[in-house]
Write a structure and sequence with these properties.
Pnp Oxidase, Chain A; 12 strands
């Protein structure tokens, strides 16, 4: 048998390789259009798109609980986290802790969209484009509001764990 028959499938190998691709991590939020209740998910699939117009992109799994709500409202907020706010991540990263989402006092609303007050950045976007590929939808949102605390202790995801993204030296 060849070595290829003993290797994990391509998706499993890709997951291992992506551990070496550090990325900022945040909680992306919106609201349920029927009830107004907050919805959200933890993610590292966040990237700037353009400065003209100011825009961000997120990749959302279509099977995720927040997917339909974000599409229906057409709005989302990227909440970047720092080490003081790392406890907000657990309820969004673990289904067992789901009941603890949106229970911390820092959660506020900007219009109907939920954000974390005091986070390094809250990037509020209106969905302008959706591109479907594989299991995910890439949502491109035009930034309509930006709240920044000036804090630069940004959390990221690398090597399968949360860590600080900071300049060397």
């Amino acid at each position: 048998m060849s070595d290829a028959n003993h290797q994990p499938d391509l998706a499993s190998r890709m997951k291992l390789v992506l551990r070496y691709l550090p990325a900022p991590v945040g909680i992306v939020t919106s609201y349920d259009p029927a009830s107004g209740a907050p919805i959200g998910l933890a993610m590292s699939a966040i990237m700037p798109m353009a400065l003209e117009p100011c825009s961000m992109a997120i990749a959302v799994n279509r099977s995720g609980s927040a997917h339909e709500g974000i599409l229906a409202t057409g709005r989302f907020c990227i909440n970047l986290l720092d080490s003081d706010l790392h406890g907000h991540m657990g309820p969004f990263a673990s289904a067992d802790l789901r009941d603890l989402r949106f229970t911390q006092p820092e959660w506020k609303q900007h219009g109907e969209v939920w954000y974390i007050e005091g986070a390094p950045a809250n990037i509020l976007c209106e969905v302008r484009e959706t591109v479907s590929y594989g299991t995910h939808d890439l949502l491109i949102g035009e930034v309509y509001e930006l709240i920044a605390s000036g804090r630069d202790d940004i959390l990221g995801w690398a090597n399968g764990a949360l860590g600080r993204l900071a300049p060397l030296g």
